[in-house]
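retry 2 of 3: previous attempt timed out while embedding heme C. Reduced batch size to 1 and resubmitted. Inputs unchanged:
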Amino acid sequence: MRTLKKMNYVFLGLTMAGVFSISAFVYQSRDIEKGAQLYNTYCASCHGIDMQGGNAQSLINGVWQFGADDSYIFRNIKYGITHLGMPAYENAISDADINNILAYIRAAEKERGVVRPDIANETGTMDYDMKIEVLAEGLEVPWAIDFLDKNTALITEKPGRVRILKDGKLVPGPVEGIPAVLNEGQGGLLDVAVDPDYAGNGWIYLAYSHALDVPGQNRPVAMTRIVRGKLSGNKWTQQQVIWEAPSETYRTTRHHYGCRIVFDPWGHLFFAIGDRGIQDQAQDPSLPNGKVHRIYPDGTIPADNPFLNVPGAMPSIYSLGNRNIQGMAIHPVTGQLWTTEHGPMGGDELNLILPGRNYGWPVITYGRNYNGTIITENTSYPGMEQPNFMWNPSPGLCGLDFYQGDMFPKWQNKLLVGALKYEDITLTTLADDRVIHTETILKNAGRVRDVTSGPDGAIYVVLNNPDVVIRMSAK
Ligand code: HEC
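retry 2 succeeded.
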């Protein structure tokens, strides 16, 4: 067995314990030789003596199916991927030793000069061979894409820019006059959605993290806000705020803003706000976070919204108990709303959202806290919805659309489910409200932030790392 040079990484971390005392401590030190021994004892029987696979996949081919970052690999070892036969080692191997194994895997990757494969220019699926083209490069954390017409798309970049993609090419400068966003943590400029009657009315909708300065506080507070406006050449004009939360509900947390925008066939606009990191608030109907909302595109409230007659409830709320929805799509036949929601560690969900229903977070969940502790013992509870489909571990579901088009006729009305961590798109077949088949049609091209069925029938995918937009078409 090849021996790898022993290396110790020592990270110096700073912690703030109270306001006045700052202490330095050793965060982690990694021992590759120990990692190698543990690998041989626990892992080699499946992943191979040389890590090149055997009873399970290779760990040194540059392809990580279940998340490439150290933190993802660490969790996959600690908590397992048990339904696929990857055991959980949380009771057998200490965290420090899991890090030692990880260091051994990384050192072996380095020694072999493993590089992550480039985006392929073609891919095969069960039904079609597909061509993959990179359309837009040089973006910064692109977040969403939607089409104005057959040849023109708008792309949001999280730092606060809207870009125009015309005839498959990125227009050089961003749209001018986009509202200021709080680009911090998971916040920034989020979704863009084009009015279903855009040709007639010209409205374009944006969701973003809107900040307010609070006197005496050193950090702004923020909440998701929805505006609409029109494009005049390269300028954003006629902006109207169509939905914003009361300022007292704004939070200093940096995550779980949601936010996708979709329209149903009856003229409603849906959007979702994540729990903003305060999980219990997802159950409180007087607060905007952890909910799906339904309004009309001009900001007025539908007269049959489910919480209108509940004292103290926000009138725009459509459903409760939604942790952080990152994918939304309207079923082309039924007009019903489907969403994908991030669970905590484990428990990502696909849900059919029905009016007034409670989706359970954080009273019920199939996930755990990231530190492994239990959030709740309950996975079901009377009066709370079960997911239509559940993933454990969490793929980091993001971006959702029903395929509609002539290019891939066999995929009509099937769901395209994107994932950040697993870096994939899963073609998902529904029969009524049940998932009956899934197939991965894109893998390891990058973190999938958004996926949409384009007006030409091709599939457009917004990736992060690399920050590009790709087009998948029939070969
Ligand atoms: C009983 C067989 C078995 C053992 C033992 C085992 N694994 Fe796995 N491991 C699997 C299977 C099966 C998968 C799922 C991937 C697949 O379908 O090949 C997996 C997946 C993984 C992944 C995710 C890979 C990716 O592409 O994201 C990592 C990381 C991993 N194993 C590390 C380890 C480590 C480290 C050990 C030892 C502590 C170990 N495994 C022990 C069977 C095993």
